[in-house]
Amino acid sequence: MGCEFWAVTNHFVLNIRWAICVRVQFRNLLPPRSRRSASHFAGRGMGVVARKGMPVYKIYRALSYVVSPLLQLHLRWRKIRGLEHPTRLPERLGRPSLTRPPGPLLWFHAVSLGEGMAAIRVIKECVKWRPDLNILLTTTTMSAFEVIINQLPTGVLHQFSPIDTPAAMDSFLDYWNPNAIMLLESELWPNLIMASSRKGILLALLNARVSMKSFKLWSSPVLFPLISLLLSKFSLIIPLSSMQAIHFQLLQAPPFIINFAGDLKYVVEYDASKEEFRSIDDLKVQLGHRKVWMASSIHRGEEEVMLGVHKVLKQVYPDLVTIIVPRYPQHGKDIAQKLQKEGQHVALRSQHQRIVPGRNIYVVDTLGELRHLYRLTPIAVIGGSFFPGLAGHNVSEAAAAGCAVLTGYHVGHFSHMLREMQRLNPLSVLQVTGKLELEEAILKFFSDGKVLEARQTASKQAFHALSSGIIANAWNVLYFHVLKQALLKDNR
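== lipid IVA 3-deoxy-D-manno-octulosonic acid transferase ==
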């Protein structure tokens, strides 16, 4: 009864809120060239939009059928380059490599590592409350697979996601026959969604978001009807923020399917093997009492900023250790190789090199360890945020570990996370414009222990306030709006 009351109340408040704000913000959010077309559809009802979206979908379906041979060649080329699994390429064409277990099955789909980790948090809650259900998780990237495969609860199945062609998607759905499908963030694949709808499979979009670039594209005269059609097929959308909810509403998602639970990326898992914990503890011993700071998730070009800061800090603190964790492992190897050619003393994580006296730079060129590595440092600089065109990264893992958190201003949709944390405590996240402000801030933290401690406490408190109850809320909304109905079907 409590859950039903909450859901009805949420719908009522949501509709009242949007009735006031949508008309005000609608034209300002859309690009000028798209305002007329979007306004043409707004308020006309889902039937009109759906009918206008069907011809666009039919064109997409025909094109995806025609280019299917080229996509298969592209997959083989990716395999040669090491971007696809060497033995599991057939899965990308909808051909399973595992036996489907009997009984109800839920399919969670995530593309990258960040989405996969968010999915795992919901999957664990599902396993906790409904251990009788079969769960399948699909991912796309190799980096996601390499980390997530070791994080899955016992019994959860993994496959690589099929490409969005009619043959691959129909083959996949016919074989696995899921009761419900949970997509992460902005995975709106037309053949997947339309085929699922035809087969009566319920759809949910978790941690839903759409970037401003995608929003402008999806609002264009051609794509707006198609996106509206696809969104009409969902039974539940859980946006990661109220602004994202407005974006989906403007794209004609039915308001009664939108419910809030919180941003799943606030939920940090610290599960690790004994070997992983021993490895991190060993690094703590190696670091001893030396000054330490970390630059994590950096993209190409940002290493010059971080190494410039390192050079300045080292003049003040000769025993300094700078930990550099690039977004991609190969970038880490390239950084280490360049520094070694310059005669600098570098330790490389993948080669198990130790942080001995005289080594001041530790480059981590491995995946899946970042949330544990934050335990090594009082200061974490989150990259992917210092140059135009970048879109930031998740700061919650660093905050959860009690780091003083710094980042740049190019943070994309993570701006919502930063605003929420800064709203709770202005000291929780410090944004800097570049090298000079960054080195000034870190020097201040190192020289004044009280300032550093205040920053660490603020970030941890903000994280705990924002992460409390998110998984329970997400599970309750998902179960009430999707799974309860999906599991009533006994023909699976």
